[in-house]
Write a structure and sequence with these properties.
The complex is a heterodimer of chains A (about 240) and B (about 230). Chain A has about 240 residues and is mainly α. Chain A has one domain: MetI-like (MetI-like fold). In chain A, about 75% of the residues lie in helices and about 0% in strands. Chain A contains 9 helices and no strands. Chain A is elongated, with a radius of gyration of 21 Å. By secondary structure, chain B is mainly alpha-helical. Chain B contains 11 helices and no strands. Classes of the chains: A mainly alpha (about 240), B mainly alpha (about 230). At the A-B interface, α3, α4, α7, α8 and α9 of A face α4, α5, α8, α9 and α10 of B.
Amino acid sequence: MTVLDDALAFLTDPASWTGSGGMLQLLGQQLLLTVLALLLALVLGLPLALWLGHLGRGGFLAINVAGVGRAVPTFALLALFVAADPWDVTGGLFPGTATAGPLGRAGVSTLVALALFALPPIITNAYTAVREVPAEVRESATGLGMSGAQLFWRCELPLALPLVAGGVRLALVQIWATATIAALVAGPGLGRVITDGFYRTLYGQGIAGAAVVAVVALVLELLAALGQRLVSPAHLRA
Amino acid sequence: MTLLATADAGTTCYSRLTNDWLCWQYVSDYRTEITDATLQHLAITLVSVLAALALSFPLALLARRVPRLETAILGVATGLYTIPSVALLPLLVPFTGLSPVTVVIGLALYALTVLVRAFLDGLRSVPADVTESATGLGYGRGRLLLAVELPLAVPVVMAGLRVATVSTVALTTVGSLVAYGGLGNLIADGVTSDFRAELLTASVLCVVIAVLLDVVLVLLQRLLTPWTRTAAA
């Protein structure tokens, strides 16, 4: 297959990796984008979901927010952010919002869109995780005289952590894969290699870009699985 | 420029100079274009989900019968999810060209990964004593599956179907890469030409379609599982 030969040639050519707009630079951009979006989503979603889970209330809200979130196309969200350009509120006071910065304007839009996209799996998993702590554990803890805060930090959180980590792991891989959408609005990341190859009918290059994205996704998945194992209490490990 | 401005200002709320986000004038002037895009969006979504549904049931049965295949099928499904849609569609183009088939295959593959899992979980959720009772009553394998296991699996399968459908509605927009993205085409055009009314109208319609299909599926589930209603009441 000539297309696969082209892809291999593109991957083995050092010129396609190095320099400005090379794959290493784009890979770095996309990793930065992924990590920042995940952190943003964690800061926004995790405390709220864990707290609601601890209270045992607002489950309807948590699940439905997640459902609606899934219905909003990331591409549409991204397109709206790019067109509205709401990041320029400071009038160019902060570099990186009005001007390029490490991610560029389309990059900031992608970052926010990805963070919102990552909220549903994080919120649903964290909420369910705390809710699924067995009632007798809760009762024993209260019987031992633990306060609400102690119950949460010493019982609920450690027991919920594996499932919470599962949600974060899912979010991480989905953010990474979806970050390629930035290319549709001329944003940063490896999506550019793919769309560029596609628009210029260099299918080999497109396949090479897709392969790199998939390989990194698998590496991230493995790392996240390892992390999930580390935070799981010994007796819960599979 | 001033001439253009005076001629243009006030005529429409979607003109280059006004460029309003909300503009009913746009909706009525571009009605046919919007309707066509919406119908294309619906058609692509429905065909993809139905194809995935038709394929996932036999695959789930196969996976259930052969445990070794189950690991393989679920592994491939997980792997598939790590391939971004932006990459999958261009990957299919050398084989299927710039056609709706490309989009449908891609979307059906994503929906398939959710649905196979849903069927497996659903069939597994049927209590063992129920299947044992049915076997004791003389139900054969086929009848057991169709008359006992499948109806009882409906709640779990429907949950998966809802996730798959809503995600597919959203993902269809990416089909604009190969010019068959339904409302995604309007969104892509809205970005490149900075056409705010088009962008917002198409985005809102996407969400509306997703919510409507979700409501239809919830109603369908109520129809298919009449016994859950008496339990809830």
